[in-house]
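Give me the fold.
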Amino acid sequence: MFRALILIDNDFVNYSVDLIAVAKQLAGEESVEICGLAINLATQEVKGFDSLICVEEPAIQIKDSRVLTDIIEQVHQKYQFDSILILATEFGRMVAPRLAMRLNVGLVADITDIEVEGQERRLIRPAFSGNMLASIVCDSSPIMVSVHPNVFHEEVRIKEPKMTHFPISELKASSIEVLSVSSEEKKKDIREAKVIISAGAGFTENIHQLEELATELNGSIAASKPLVEQNRAPREIQVGQSGKTVSPNLYIALGIYGSMQHVEGLKNVKDLISVNTDEGAPMNYLANLIVVGDAAEFVEKLKLRLKK
């Protein structure tokens, strides 16, 4: 029996549930038991797990990575899991390495694929700035893994989990003090978009010029890593291995060369249009439709055509 624990991120519950697919792949041909860890979470809509370990304590500071590390360690000490899976959000990237150090095991971060042969499990992740893929063999226990949101998908979520309430034996006081709270308008996450207009280094105009086209197509604007590094686009709209993974129906790549780092951020894209002056750009080999030409000119002509 392969036993896996998934930490449910309260801000990204659906993406956390998708990690069930990762646990199933890790188990290979072994039977698998998948447990979710819910900390101060309303669990009525959480389905698909075999069991749900619930920790309910109002004093828990949910955004303190040290406190959460203590809780996960206590849960693991009682149940002894073969693998612990954590979503690679900004917060998850603080918890996962802390927990790996605490349990004295390695951590394979930002995996994109899994290969299992017998008892050997190989975790695949981009390496060297996304220029190649590394295959990492895990022989320590538990296998510690962090996974980008939206890379793996668990479609069937009907199963009602068995609920278990876990009492915390010792809860350390949080060192985080809330000084003030402010609210801001929630922006549309590009991971939810069905149409994405994405600009790369070959798009020489201001990225805000894509807003009209995005409105016409009821889509969202995204960017490649070079634009973010040039401070021409915010990091929250970056697509790629070090950004976000997207699965739109239509992805329009404007002046994007198509490095492995960027391509790793594209999963299950139905239609891809690549606009590039370089006919040999790798992105063109992934596209359904290739436009050889200037990306900014293409945008202006497409807007005119849509108005007609």
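The chain has a mean pLDDT of 90.
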